[in-house]
Design goal:
The protein is an alpha/beta fold. Helices cover about 35% and strands about 15% of the residues. It has helices spanning about 5-15, 15-30, 55-65, 95-100, 105-115, 125-130, 135-145, 175-190, 245-250, 265-275, 335-345, 355-360, 375-380, 395-400, 405-420, 485, 495-510; strands at about 45, 45-50, 70-75, 90, 165-170, 195, 200-205, 215-220, 225-230, 235, 280, 290-295, 300-305, 320, 350-355, 385-390, 440-445, 455, 460-465, 470-475. The longest helix has 18 residues, at about 175-190.
Length: about 525
């Protein structure tokens, strides 16, 4: 089967993510795990959790174990949120796993690493709260069967490494975590302490004359509207990665790739703002590098990702911007350098350029596609607009919409440096010149899985107004707080899933107050 046919089939099969989630829901029900639940309108709850994912499930679980009556309202037809799609990577310091392998580590070291990697742009209070309580969360999961890889923990993969090996995840990725949360939650559902309202959206927050949040208004797929009263309302309904309009408004950049969870629509942002809160962190926007898109109708489906981490695959090609100029020493061993360089390019876009000799001799540039195996040779014969081939550099530049003279000058300069061993940008790995036609270019686009802006909260995770006063009765956790809160303008391993789980646990276990 030709590549175009393969990818079209893969994309068609993945477009309807509601169908994908319904299949998971059916399998969940068959296993007897929580899927459906009913909650009476007008009931009073000790805790209403809006969003049943990374942060919401542990909050509900630990609150119920304290005897609280909990209602989980989830827009999808199943629990789990992004755990269905996430790699589930976690980081925690001082864990039993580390101690069993003789690794000496501390939460303070973890905190220092996050602030170092983020260049002190992460929120110090939230990072401190997350990492100083992460080990208990991780140990709790391990004690209940988390199936981490035998060689874990590690210091990192391709982003900036930690100073100690504290990075680990389950062999079933995010579902390793979800399986444990569902299993632990089931007795609370059976007992009636936890009720579920699935396929239901929260459309408004109820507030009294003082602004205190006292409940929610929800609507299900049948159009039925319900009002629920709650002593505490916790927003854990994720980010806005599948809402391109909100993405551009909050981060000042376009959302180019359609790769995120369908229900990441920014509902929590909308609810929090309407209640008087504010949003922060969008200035930390930092794209991922190397996305190859199916078309220019953004956000587009991603068909593959170019390998760009030099320690794993040293570069043979060059990278150029729209002016045909190199903007990065391609063999720099840092994802962070790649991502920050991409951030400064027009439309966060670049091109990887090479010739026929490199195409035939270099290790695979695109090792695999999002829809399965990827054949780069076939890709240049497809109608996908990211792949270009021409018999001259000028012709290649015209096809790829790159400045022709700029590209010709850049290739000539690179070839001169390759021959002399003295590259203008200091690059050392230069196996071949770019001199044998036909010439090739692949358009690479930024992409993101998570979102950087989020609701502002205080140290107690209460949603706050612009004047820093808390909105009583309203809390938030998880990705809704923004990637920027926990990683700043950077990527720190395990600092999305672990803080979400940890802060959810802390809220349910001790931070939320229930009537006696």
């Amino acid at each position: 089967m030709k590549l175009a046919s393969k990818l079209s089939t893969a994309v068609r099969s993945s477009v309807d993510r509601r169908h994908f989630l319904s299949l998971i829901g059916a399998a969940t029900a068959a296993l007897g795990l929580p899927r459906r639940g009913h909650a009476a309108a007008h009931d009073e709850w000790d805790l209403i959790v809006v969003g049943g994912g990374n942060a919401g499930l542990p909050a509900a679980l630990f609150a119920a174990q304290r005897g609280a009556r909990v209602l989980i309202i989830e827009a999808a037809g199943i629990l789990g949120g992004t755990l269905h799609l996430s790699s589930g990577q976690m980081s925690a310091a001082g864990t039993q796993l580390q101690k069993s392998k003789g690794i000496k580590d501390s939460p303070q070291s973890h905190y220092d690493d996050v602030m170092r990697i983020s260049k002190n742009t992460a929120d110090p209070d939230l990072v401190h709260l997350a990492v100083f309580n992460a080990a208990e969360t991780f140990d709790w999961l391990m004690d209940r069967g988390l199936d981490v890889y035998p060689h874990h923990p590690i210091t990192g993969t391709t982003h900036e490494p930690y100073s100690h090996a504290r990075y680990a995840w389950g062999q079933q990725q995010g579902r390793s975590i979800l399986r444990i949360l569902e299993t632990q939650l089931q007795p609370e559902i059976d007992s009636g302490r936890v009720a579920l309202a699935l396929s239901t959206e929260v459309t408004d927050l109820l507030q009294d004359e003082n602004g205190t949040v006292t409940g929610v208004v929800s609507r299900n797929l049948d159009g039925e509207v319900s009002r629920h009263g709650g002593h505490n309302v916790l927003l854990t309904c994720g980010g806005y990665a599948s809402n391109p309009e909100m993405f551009e408004e909050l981060e000042g950049a376009k959302d180019y790739a359609d790769v995120s969870y369908e229900y990441s629509q920014g509902a929590g942002i909308t609810l929090g703002l309407a209640a008087g809160g504010y949003v922060r962190g969008g200035e930390h926007h930092l794209p991922l590098f190397g996305g190859i898109m199916m078309d220019d109708n953004y956000p587009s489906r991603m068909i593959a990702n170019a390998r760009h981490f030099p320690p794993n695959r040293p570069p043979w090609e060059i990278l150029v911007d729209v002016d045909g100029k190199r903007f990065l020493r391609e063999d720099i061993p840092s994802h962070d350098a790649y991502e920050h360089a991409l951030l400064d390019l027009p439309e966060e876009r670049c091109w990887v350029v090479f010739d026929d000799a490199i195409r035939k001799q270099a290790p695979k540039l695109v090792a695999g596609g999002f829809g399965g195996p990827f054949d780069l040779d076939e890709a240049f014969d497809t109608p996908f607009p990211a792949f270009f081939r021409a018999d001259s550099l000028a012709g290649l530049a015209k096809a790829a919409r790159i400045h022709p003279r700029g590209l010709e000058k850049t290739v000539a300069s690179y070839n001169k440096g390759q021959q002399s061993g003295k590259d203008a940008l200091g690059r050392k790995h230069m196996p071949l010149p770019i001199a044998k036609p036909p010439y090739y270019a692949i358009q690479l686009q930024s992409w993101l899985l998570t979102t950087y802006a989020g609701l502002a909260v205080d140290k107690q995770l209460r949603v706050i107004r612009a004047d820093k006063t808390p909105i009583e009765g309203l809390y938030a956790a998880g990705e809704l707080l923004g990637t920027g809160a926990f990683m700043g303008r950077s990527y720190c391993g395990g600092m999305m899933v672990t803080p979400a789980l940890t802060l959810g646990r802390l809220l349910g276990q001790s931070m939320l107050k229930f009537p006696t």
